[in-house]
C-alpha cells in the first residue's frame, strides 16, 4: 500500500508535530507518512524535532522570499516538488491566501484549540483563545481539527474533543490541558483518517 505523503508546517514548539511523529511510530498513523517539515521561522523548535526524527526539513520566511506572494509560491513549489498529498498546519502562524488554500482543496488540515464555532476566526490564536474561553466562563472547551479553506477556521470540521475547564484555571493551565487531553490525541487521529481517505481515493482512481 502506498501511504499518503504528509508535510507538517510549524512555527513554534512543535508538540503537535511530535504527537504525529510518535503516532506514526506507534502505528496509530498507518496510512500517512511525514516526509517533510516546513517552518516559517528559523527559530521553530519543530525543526529540531524533525531533525531528531530523521525527517527532511526547511524553513522559509516572507523576508527571504521577498513578500507574501513569493513566500506562498515557494511553499507550493516545495510541497508540489515533494509530491505532498496532505498538508498539516500544526501551529503554523502564517497567513495563507485563497490562492494557496484553493491549490489544495481538502488537502490542508489545521488544529484549533477550541470547540469551533466558539472562540475562532481572526485574532483567535495561541493563548488568546483560552483567555477568551475563561473570560466567557465556559465550563467546557476543547480542540477542533478542520479542513482549511479561505475562511479563517471556517473549513469543514473533521474531529473535535471536549475538555473541562477547572476552577482556578489560567490561560496557560487550560492551554496545556487542551493540548494533552485533546490536541495530541485528535490531531494524529485526524491525520490517519484523512490519509486513509486519500489512499482509498488514489487506489480507486
Ligand atoms: C497549538 O495550541 C495549536 O492548537 C495552535 O498552535 C499551538 C501549536 O503548538 N494552532 P505546537 O507548536 O504544536 O507545540
Q: Which structural class fits the helix and strand makeup?
A: alpha/beta
Order of helices and strands: EHEHEHHEHEHEEH
How do the strands line up in the largest sheet?
Answer: 3-2-1-4-5-6-7
Number of helices: 7
CATH architecture: 3-Layer(aba) Sandwich
Number of domains: 1
List each distinct ligand once. 5-O-phosphono-beta-D-ribofuranosylamine
Give a verbal description of the structure.
The protein is an alpha/beta fold and 205 residues long. It has a single domain, classed as Formyl transferase, N-terminal domain (Rossmann fold, 3-Layer(aba) Sandwich). It contains 7 helices and 7 strands. A 7-stranded mixed β-sheet has the order 3-2-1-4-5-6-7, with helices on one face. Strand 1 (4-10), helix 1 (15-26) and strand 2 form a beta-alpha-beta unit. Helix 1 (15-26) runs parallel beside helix 2 (45-53), helix 1 crosses helix 7 (171-204) and helix 6 (127-136) packs across helix 7 (171-204). The longest helix is centred in the C-terminal third of the chain and has 34 residues, at 171-204. The protein starts with a strand and ends with a helix. The mean pLDDT is 97. Bound molecules: 5-O-phosphono-beta-D-ribofuranosylamine. The site of 5-O-phosphono-beta-D-ribofuranosylamine has 13 residues, from helix 1, strand 5 and helix 7. 5-O-phosphono-beta-D-ribofuranosylamine binds at residues 10, 12-16, 90-91, 111-113, 179, 183.
Amino acid at each position: 500500500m502506498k501511504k499518503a505523503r504528509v508535510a507538517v508546517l510549524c512555527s513554534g514548539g512543535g508538540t503537535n508535530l511530535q504527537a504525529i511523529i510518535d503516532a506514526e511510530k506507534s502505528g496509530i498513523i498507518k496510512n500517512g507518512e511525514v516526509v517533510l517539515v516546513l517552518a516559517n521561522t528559523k527559530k521553530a523548535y519543530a525543526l529540531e524535532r524533525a531533525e531528531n526524527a530523521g525527517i527532511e526539513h526547511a524553513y522559509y520566511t516572507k523576508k527571504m522570499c521577498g513578500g507574501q506572494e513569493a513566500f506562498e509560491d515557494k511553499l507550493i513549489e516545495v510541497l508540489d516538488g515533494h509530491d505532498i498529498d496532505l498538508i498539516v498546519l500544526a501551529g503554523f502562524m502564517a497567513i495563507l491566501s485563497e490562492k494557496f488554500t484553493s491549490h489544495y482543496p481538502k488537502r490542508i488540515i489545521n488544529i484549533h484549540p477550541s470547540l469551533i464555532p466558539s472562540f475562532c476566526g481572526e485574532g483567535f490564536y495561541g493563548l488568546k483563545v483560552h483567555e477568551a474561553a475563561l473570560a466567557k466562563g465556559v465550563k467546557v472547551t476543547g480542540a477542533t481539527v478542520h479542513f482549511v479553506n479561505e475562511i479563517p477556521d471556517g473549513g469543514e470540521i473533521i474531529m473535535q474533543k471536549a475538555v473541562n475547564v477547572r476552577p482556578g484555571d489560567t490561560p496557560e493551565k487550560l492551554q496545556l490541558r487542551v493540548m494533552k487531553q485533546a490536541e495530541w490525541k485528535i490531531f494524529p487521529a485526524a491525520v490517519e483518517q484523512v490519509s486513509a481517505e486519500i489512499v482509498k481515493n488514489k487506489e480507486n482512481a
